[in-house]
Design a protein that fits this description.
Layout lengths: L7 H6 L3 H7 L6 H13 L3 E2 H10 L6 H13 L4 E3 L6 E3 L5 E6 L5 E5 L4 H11 L10 E4 L7
Parallel strand pairs: 4-6
Antiparallel strand pairs: 1-3, 2-3, 4-5
This protein binds zinc ion (2 copies).
């Protein structure tokens, strides 16, 4: 019998989340695994409430306190990063460091690649003496394209 993989492409693109958890010294619990899977699949920065709602929609009713703790642990071990904005804290996962721009109106968070901002970061260092932190992340607040019209 030949096994064809209908979703070979999808399968290959799915990272091993349990291995990722273990690599960060975390025990592999259902809530951690589901939260991590959801975060990385979304490719967005999401709040605790949004994660909860989406998990519930998938039939995984973890309570907010559990999800909040999970997200905080992810942030502590460097698996996720938190972005402060108006409204709730939002969390993202990405192995690639990036800057954030946050809409102060709707709280939407967008990523900007480090390389695209290198001149601006150099200029900031020149002007203020401030060097980018370990994550190298800038946080800029403004109004997104949807809110500024
Ligand atoms: Zn981010
Ligand atoms: Zn906005």
């Amino acid at each position: 019998m030949t096994m064809t993989q209908p979703s070979a492409q999808h399968g290959a693109a799915t990272p091993d989340h349990s291995a990722l958890l273990r690599r960060h010294g975390l025990r592999c619990t259902a809530s951690r695994l589901c939260t991590l899977r959801l975060l990385s699949a979304s490719g967005q920065h999401v709040s605790t409430a949004e994660v909860c709602a989406q998990l519930q929609g998938m039939g995984l009713p973890f309570d907010q306190a559990t999800v909040y703790r999970t997200l905080e642990i992810f942030t502590e071990v460097g698996l996720a990063h938190a972005v402060l904005g108006p409204g709730p804290k939002r969390y993202g996962v990405s192995s690639v460091p990036h800057h954030h721009v946050v809409c102060e109106e709707c709280g939407r968070v967008q990523d900007v690649a480090i390389a695209q901002m290198s001149e601006a970061v150099e200029r900031i260092t020149e002007l203020t003496g401030l060097h980018a932190g370990a994550g190298g992340s800038l946080l800029l607040y403004g109004r997104c394209s949807r809110c500024s019209t």
